[in-house]
Amino acid sequence: MPTGVHLRDARQQLFDAAERLLLRDGPNGLTSRAVTDEAGCAKGVLHRHFSDFDAFLTALVLDRAAQLEEQAMTLRASAGTGTVADNLTSALTTLFGPVPVAIIPLITFRDELRARLRVARSGGGIAILAQVTTAVSAYLAAERERDRIAADADIDSLTLSLVGGGHLLFADRDSGPPTTAVVNKLVTTVIADTVQRRPV
User: Could you give the 3-state DSSP secondary structure of residue 46?
Assistant: First the structure.
């Protein structure tokens, strides 16, 4: 695209370009020049919309985190349907999709980005993981209310086990995502005791 051509919805095009770079080259490949080249625009376009590159990355992470919140609502709405294990397996596979998993190391290794995310929103310093944690916790609480897991289930510990274990399963980008069976085995193992002890 010629540099003089106006980008419609430049912010979104820049976000989409950054997402493609993250998936293709990882966090190390994400520079302001790489983003504008991928978007097919002049470097100045990014700086017209954002004060600096960390401001751009902050907006990118918050935009993608907001998308996870929509998926969290879908998980919450599934409470009381299907099986708890299947719902959580599906949710972890979606919530730890390629883009969220690519964003997590970006946040981890950029101190300035983490600092800005903390200012932007509560729990922002671990954005993405915070959204996944909130989604899983809310779902488990909803299932406990429906007596589908034990009334004395420790929601916080279950959530940490599921989110931590899920992240480890999905974090290795080189070998590809885990199979549904592998994710289901993790979920089933973590929740087995609370599901078995639930009231009949």
Answer: helix
The architecture that CATH gives domain 65-196 is: Orthogonal Bundle (1.10)
CA-CA distance, 157 to 29, in Å (whole number)? 36
Residue with tokens 């406990």: 144
CA-angle at 81, arms to 75 and 82, nearest 5°: 95
> What digits encode the pLDDT tens for the residues 66-88?
888 888 999 999 999 999 999 99
Average pLDDT, the chain: 88
Look up residue 149 and give its amino acid.
Answer: I
Alpha carbon distance 36, 53 (integer Å): 11
Task: Report the candidate in 38, 22, 40, 39 with the shortest Cα–Cα distance to residue 30.
Answer: 22
d(CA 67, CA 131): 10
CATH topology for the 7-49 domain: Arc Repressor Mutant, subunit A (1.10.10)
pLDDT above 50 for 45: yes
Look at the block and give the residue holding tokens 């993790």: 186
Domain limits, the chain: 7-49, 65-196
What does each C-alpha distance from 129 to 8, 43, 64, 90, 194 come to in angstroms?
31, 31, 12, 17, 23
Alpha-carbon distance of 124 to 63, in angstroms, equals 12
Contact 136, 163 (CB under 8 A): yes
Tokens standing for residue 88: 């959580």
